[in-house]
Amino acid sequence: MSQNLQGSIRLYGCGGLGVNIVSYFEPCAGQALEGHAVAHPCYVDTSRSNIDPGLSDERIFIMDAMDGSGKVRRENHEEISKNIRTIIQTHQPQDFNVVVFSASGGSGSVIGPLIMSELLTRGLPVVGIVVGSDESTITANNTIGTLKSLEAIAQKTGQPVVISYEQNQHGVKRSDVDAACHHVIGALSLLSSRRNREMDTKDIANWVQFHRTTSVKPRMALLDVYRNNKDVENIVAPISIASLYADPDAPTIQVTPEYHCAGYPRDNVAGFEVMHYVITIDAVANIGRTIQQRIVELDQQRNSRVRVDPLVNDHDVVGDDGMVF
Q1: pTM of the model
Q2: Can you list the domains of the chain with their CATH numbers?
Q3: Would you say the C-alpha torsion 242, 177, 172, 291 has a positive or negative sign?
Q4: Radius of gyration of the chain from Cα atoms?
Q5: Across the chain, where does the E strand assignment appear?
Q6: With bands split at pLDDT 50, 70 and 90, how would you rate the model's confidence at 74?
Q7: Where does residue 117 rank: exposed (0-12), middle (13-18), buried (19+ CB within 10 A)?
């Protein structure tokens, strides 16, 4: 198979979580795998602490003037913003682009949205893989701030911001969240492979840039990937759906979105039967409300703490060196 017939997909791993998720695809970097787009992973961070020494230097972009953000999103915002165009110049966008980042950290939650904003400003097809958290007050506040930023970017750029969203929370294994992210990235690689009959790059662009083909104005939207028809048919009012069927005679979904494109992989992909890529907006508000409620709960816990007086009081004599006798 000629690599020229393959599509290409850029994976931007941003911050610690993004680097970890994208590095899963490092072994297949630059390879024309059957039925998939050629993956071009890259890793962007404010510190080398998250970078595996085995990763190729040519795919790493470290902002050396910084050394992490310590979960404080505004800490390095200005310096990160200055570097975004250089990052994209160094690691060029491809036919399709995926930006992976945590919504709850300090670096990825700034790098990721700003890269998405620049790609959207250029009119390029892009999806975000975003992982939020409500495990602490700062991560919950960071998550809601990041999601609001993505909504604001949609308004600013006049382009939909489509994300696949997962959440780290009590009772959910981190490995399960990672696996869910890997699944969506792999599915997007199938979709953007240019190896699907009756589906070209314009179809995919119209699917993800749904404001061109539907009545829905640019805003943040959610992407979910399904491997059967039944789950899709339970979705109320989907906006835009792209479908891949291994068998052209397979039953199609009995739901009518405003936009739908379908394709049929030319290559034999192990275990593949059907894949539906569904974009909706209804659950966005629910995610926001759930996180806001969690922030209220955490604030109530903080305010209900019993006040504990410090050991040192006004009657103690403290020396210049901090010693008390």
Answers
A1: 0.90
A2: 3-223 (3.40.50.1440)
A3: negative
A4: 22
A5: 8-14, 38-45, 60-62, 96-102, 126-133, 161-168, 196-197, 220-226, 240-245, 259-265, 274-280
A6: low
A7: buried
